[in-house]
Amino acid sequence: MPDASRAEKKIRVLIVDDHPVVRIGLRTTIDAEPDMQVVAEAGDGAAAIEAFLTHRPDITLMDLRLPGMSGPETITQIRNRRPDAAIIVITTYDADADVYRAVQAGARGYLLKGTFTEGMLEAIRHVHAGGRLFAREVAAATAEASARPTLTSREVGVLQLVAKGLSNKEIGAALFVSEDTIKTHLKHVFTKLGVGDRTEAALLAIQRGIITLV
């Protein structure tokens, strides 16, 4: 009976990461703690939502870059169903836009994978106790990102095609608009990002996580 009582008090954790080796490492670390237990794992956003609804974990550790549905999208879907969901983003990426989207989606913690192992365990306990935990560089990036002009979905789409090497004419054809319209979109993008040409815009957008190369 005492053993069952202790088990009930453990922090129940869901791990979401598309790399099996990472999940194994996280599970091993977490299960070694007397006050924690991994109750489920998932490798993509859809599986994460299903696992969350099935197991109702106390804490969800979620990688930011997932196949299919992104980390921020998955967080939004989970919190639409359970607004009190406690989710900590874990990632190797610290791009400003990624940080901002995850925080806006409702993540209560955001840690770079370089903070493991003690930092992660501390974060789990802290967030489970009702706190929030964001690495210093993450907090700074979030503040900076929130202060910048936001690109529209169309502008992001144009930038994505620029990064793939398409000309203005080709982008216009792909989006069923005129070449002049694409030039106008890019002019707005240059102003918002503070850059002078297509190459700078694409590189900065990739660096900030506004677009990704796939």
Can you offer a commentary on this structure?
This protein has 11 helices and 6 strands. The protein is of the alpha/beta class and 214 residues long. It has 2 domains: 2-146, Rossmann fold; 153-208, Orthogonal Bundle (Arc Repressor Mutant, subunit A). The chain has a 6-stranded parallel beta sheet, sandwiched between helices. The radius of gyration is 20 Å and the shape is elongated.
Task: Provide the descriptors you would attach to this structure in a database record.
alpha/beta; 214 residues; single chain; 6-stranded parallel sheet; 11 helices; Arc Repressor Mutant, subunit A; Rossmann fold; disordered N terminus
Layout of helices and strands:
Elements: H1 2-9, E1 11-16, H2 20-31, E2 36-42, H3 45-55, E3 59-63, H4 71-81, E4 87-91, H5 96-105, E5 109-112, H6 118-128, E6 133-134, H7 136-147, H8 153-163, H9 168-175, H10 179-193, H11 198-208
Parallel strand pairs: 1-2, 1-3, 3-4, 4-5, 5-6
Helix pairs in contact: 3-4, 4-5, 5-7, 8-10, 8-11, 9-10, 10-11
